[in-house]
Design brief:
The complex is a heterodimer of chains A (128) and B (448). With 128 residues, chain A is of the alpha+beta class. Chain A is built from four helices and ten strands, in the order E-E-E-H-E-E-E-E-E-H-H-E-E-H. The relative contact order of chain B is 0.14. The chains are: A alpha+beta (128), B alpha/beta (448).
């Protein structure tokens, strides 16, 4: 299972890449694997203000529809339109081309509550 | 396992009461307030034997007016069209007749294919890209269409033409009044048409227009489409007499984004106003908002044609409370009757039926013009039109019923304003013979 060291993680299987006051968010390799073939991603609206742990997007696979929770509070500044056309990118490239949305952070202190790669590895090891 | 058809013996009751710790049924029901608790025995007749029961209900059924024994000019959303015998024969094959929702849908390839063919026909007729497997009726289809438009545009105001069937409007109100969605009505003009609203379109999720409308008038849809699209709202076209699609321009070519309607006229008997089926189709752009089951065509692992339930993640069993709609079933049998009917008629046949309906209605209206005291509002119509009578519409219908004629629908029955007191809505289909229409005219002459 691919768990890049440079990223932060959540218990609900989102990853966070920090870029100064901004954060890019997607779902982990583990999550895409569990969901199976992803057929649709319902993206949030740009400009929407979201709170940490708020449901902001929905991923539909052939067997389930799952909420994606924002790992941090902030304003949505960008969404990945490519995955509207090619949702399978979330399966094939969960950490790069399959990113879902990016945030301008309202409360950077929340970063301390995110999981590091090592913690996330332990979390999914318990599940497997 | 042996099933006892009388499972609730006195002993069973006693055991159940013992288990929950009460002595009697009365004790169990003690929380029901005395004022609503019926203590006396119900006033019911004595039991009947089976032959007595059949006799009783046969007598009761004879009170019904059968469409084969009267000449009916009733329309108003349900139309008496000819149903080829083959529709019933094919429909009653047990492979179709006894199948309910397939819980392992892909095992029922025949049923899925039938639904797929139905969807294809609905798309062809409406000019839409995608259709679902059907709804309960035209009214629920329209309500779902309104929901789609509100979700897609994220707006909470809908403009509805005054030509939309009053019963459909009631259902839409039932759906959306508690949901904080505002429904505004755009009144019709003197020719029973919807004019371009003198309003700013930008706040509306959709404009709903029925074509032909409740009064039978053919609407000019294109200008309405341009108006609502200027504000980025959606155009919903609703249809209650789908035979008209054999003659009129398809809604998709008039700018419709979503088409909802009642499919009864396609191979479903009028019955008592149901059960029939509703259809709902939309442009590809709104596919994600379309509720209900959708059958898709694909190939199996051997590369052979196969049918599946597709896009199921929109639906309740997967999306739970986030599903698009509570609708998770369809009227498969009614829709199948529709598909069989359409396949038997083909495009040419449907057109022929539509032309006959149109011509017979126009013949009737020309004849009515000769009757003094009956006033015919100007309108462009398909197979149904209103007429103002010298006396109350209800009175005419009541009197002519005794002579074997149902002289149309008194509009006041559905629209309760005194304005409609003398108005009858008359509908014509391919089943009316010239002599039927002449008989109606002759019968009406006494009030002329």
């Amino acid at each position: 299972m691919n768990i890049p060291q440079s990223l932060y993680y959540t218990k609900t299987h989102e990853w966070v890449e920090l870029k100064g006051e901004e954060a890019v968010i997607g779902i982990t390799d583990f999550a895409q694997h569990q969901l199976g073939d992803i057929v649709f991603v319902e993206l949030p609206e740009v400009g929407r203000e979201v709170k940490k742990e708020e449901a902001v997007a929905v991923i539909e696979s052939v067997k389930a529809a799952s909420d994606i929770y924002s790992p941090l509070s902030g304003t949505i500044i960008n969404v990945n339109q490519n995955i509207s056309e090619e949702p399978e990118l979330v399966n094939s490239s969960p950490y790069k081309e399959g990113w879902i949305f990016s945030l301008k952070l309202n409360n950077p202190e929340e970063i301390a509550e995110l999981l590091k790669a090592e913690d996330y590895k332990k979390l999914i090891a318990e599940k497997e | 396992m042996a099933m006892n058809y009388l499972p609730l013996t006195d002993l069973d009751r006693k055991e159940m009461l013992n288990t929950i710790g009460v002595d009697s049924i009365e004790e169990l029901l003690q929380d029901i307030p005395g004022s609503v608790y019926i203590k006396d025995k119900l006033n019911l007749p004595n039991p009947l034997s089976e032959p007595e029961l059949i006799g009783y209900f046969s007598k009761l059924a004879r009170k019904n007016i059968n469409l084969s024994s009267v000449i009916s000019f009733l329309g108003g959303g349900v139309y008496n069209h000819f149903i080829p015998a083959a529709v019933r024969e094919i429909l009653k094959r047990t492979e179709f007749y006894t199948v309910y929702t397939p819980y392992q849908p892909e095992i029922s390839q025949g049923l899925l294919q039938a639904i797929f063919e139905y969807q294809t026909m609905i798309c062809n007729l409406t000019g839409m890209d995608v259709s679902n497997a059907s709804h309960y009726d035209g009214a629920t289809s329209l309500a779902e269409a309104v929901g789609m438009a509100c979700r897609f545009t994220k707006r909470d105001k809908v403009l509805i033409s005054g030509g939309v069937h009053p019963d459909y409007l009631k259902v839409v109100k039932t759906y959306f009044s508690p949901a904080n969605i505002t429904l505004e009505i755009e009144e019709l003009n003197n020719q029973f048409n919807t004019l371009i609203p003198d309003k700013d379109p930008t706040s509306y999720a959709a404009l709903v227009v029925q074509n032909p409308n409740f009064f039978g008038a053919i609407e000019e849809v294109e200008p309405l489409s341009q108006w609502i699209h200027k504000g980025k709202g959606l155009l919903i076209v609703v249809i209650s007499e789908p035979i008209s699609l054999g003659l009129l321009k398809v809604p998709g070519d008039c700018g419709a984004d979503i088409v909802a309607g009642e499919g009864q006229a396609f191979g479903n008997a009028p019955s008592f106003g149901g059960p029939h089926f509703g259809f709902l189709a939309c442009k590809r752009e709104y596919l994600r908002q379309l509720p209900g089951r959708i059958v898709g065509e694909t190939v199996d692992i051997e590369g052979k044609e196969a049918f599946v339930l597709t896009l199921q993640a929109r639906e309740q069993h997967i999306r739970r409370e986030k599903a698009l709609s509570n609708i998770c079933s369809n009227h498969a049998l009614g829709a199948l009757a529709g598909a069989i009917y359409l396949s038997l008629l083909g495009g040419k046949g449907l057109r022929e039926v539509a032309i006959q309906c149109f011509q017979k209605a126009h013949y009737a209206r020309d004849r009515l013009k000769t009757l003094k005291g009956f006033s015919l509002p100007q309108l462009v119509f398909f197979n149904e039109f209103p007429v103002y009578c010298p006396v109350s519409g209800e009175l005419i219908v009541e009197e002519l019923l005794g002579e074997g004629i149902i002289a149309g629908l008194p509009v006041k029955k559905l629209l309760h304003s005194p304005k409609w007191e003398s108005c009858l809505l008359l509908a014509f289909t391919e089943l009316h013979k010239k002599e039927d229409i002449d008989k109606l005219i002759l019968a009406l002459k006494r009030w002329s």
